[in-house]
Specification:
24% of the residues lie in helices and 22% in strands. The chain is an alpha/beta fold and 272 residues long. α1 runs parallel beside α2.
Length: 272
C-alpha cells in the first residue's frame, strides 16, 4: 500500500505507525488543492521523517495538474503539462541535493499526459481517465468521441412523441450527476446517447435531466421515435468515466465487431 503526504505531521504519523507503507510526497504543481510547493522549506523535513521510520519506504514525489481541466486550448494544456513536469523534477532535484534517493517522479492528469511536450526527469505518467476516455476529454481534444471506450447500457422505458421526450432506466446513479461539460464549448448534459455500437446514430441527442433512476431525453426529433421505442437499448457516453464507473461491480468488454460480450472485468470496490 502506498499513499501521498504533504505535511510533516502525517509523515511522522506514518513513520511511527508500525506498518509497512510506501509513501510519496505530494507536490502542488498549480492546482492549489493539495500538495506542497517544490521550494517549500518543509520538503526536506518530510523526506527525513519518512526515512526515519523503520517501516516506511520513501517512494518519490508526485503531482496532479487538475487545473489542466480549465484549459480550452491545446497550447494552454501543453504549458500546464510543462509546469507540472518541472514541479516534480525540481522537487526531486532539491531532495537529491539534500542527500535523499528519489526513485520515482510521477505526474499526470489525462490532458497533460496526452499533450506533454517532454518527459525528461519523469518516471511515471499517472493518468486515470486516459484508459477509457469520456466526454470531458473529448471537449479538451484529448481524444475523439468515437474513441471513448466506456458506456452505460440503458433501456427506453417511456416515450412521449407529443412532448419530444424519451425516458431511460439510467438516471443520476447510473450516469452520475457530474456536469463536467456544462461550461465548455459543447454541453453534453448528463451523457451523449448512442446506438448499441457506440455510434452517433441519433445525432447530438443527450440525457437532459436525471432523477435517481430515470434519465430524460428532451427535444427528440419525430423521426427518431421509430428507433427509440419502449424496450429499445442505447448506450450513454459519460461526462466523467471515473465517477460513472464507480457505481458498477463489473465491466462488460464488448467485441466491436460481433457486439458480443468478450470478457467480464471485476472491479475492486469500496471506499476507504
Amino acid at each position: 500500500m502506498s499513499f501521498l503526504v504533504e505535511n510533516i505531521e502525517v509523515a511522522r504519523a506514518a513513520a511511527d505507525y508500525g506498518a509497512s507503507f510506501g509513501v510519496w510526497i505530494e507536490i502542488d504543481s498549480g492546482e492549489h488543492r493539495t500538495g506542497i510547493e517544490p521550494d517549500d522549506p518543509t520538503l526536506v523535513a518530510i523526506a527525513s521523517a519518512l526515512n526515519a521510520g523503520s517501516h516506511t519506504k520513501f517512494m518519490g514525489v508526485a503531482t496532479h495538474a487538475g487545473h489542466s481541466y480549465a484549459c480550452r486550448t491545446t497550447d494552454d494544456i501543453r504549458a500546464v503539462a510543462e509546469q507540472e513536469r518541472q514541479s516534480v523534477v525540481n522537487a526531486a532535484d532539491r531532495l537529491r541535493h539534500a542527500g535523499f534517493a528519489v526513485p520515482n517522479t510521477s505526474m499526470g492528469s489525462t490532458p497533460t499526459t496526452v499533450y506533454a511536450s517532454s518527459a525528461v526527469g519523469i518516471t511515471e505518467f499517472r493518468a486515470g481517465v486516459y484508459m477509457a476516455g469520456d466526454l470531458v476529454q473529448s471537449v479538451l481534444n484529448s481524444l475523439r468521441v468515437e474513441d471513448i471506450a466506456f458506456s452505460v447500457l440503458a433501456t427506453v422505458i417511456s416515450t412521449r412523441p407529443d412532448w419530444g421526450q424519451v425516458v431511460l432506466d439510467a438516471g443520476g446513479l447510473a450516469l452520475s450527476k457530474d456536469r463536467g461539460t456544462k461550461d465548455t464549448s459543447h454541453d453534453y448534459g448528463y451523457g451523449l446517447v448512442t446506438d448499441l455500437a457506440g455510434r452517433r446514430a441519433f445525432g447530438e441527442l443527450v440525457v437532459s435531466e436525471v432523477h435517481q433512476e430515470h434519465g430524460e431525453i428532451h427535444h427528440v426529433p419525430p423521426a427518431l421515435f421509430d428507433q427509440l421505442r419502449v424496450g429499445s437499448k442505447v448506450r450513454v457516453l459519460p461526462n466523467h468515466v471515473c465517477m460513472t464507473a464507480a457505481m458498477y461491480n463489473q465491466l462488460y468488454v464488448v467485441d466491436a465487431h460481433t457486439q458480443s460480450v468478450a470478457a467480464v472485468w471485476q472491479r475492486t470496490n469500496g471506499w476507504s
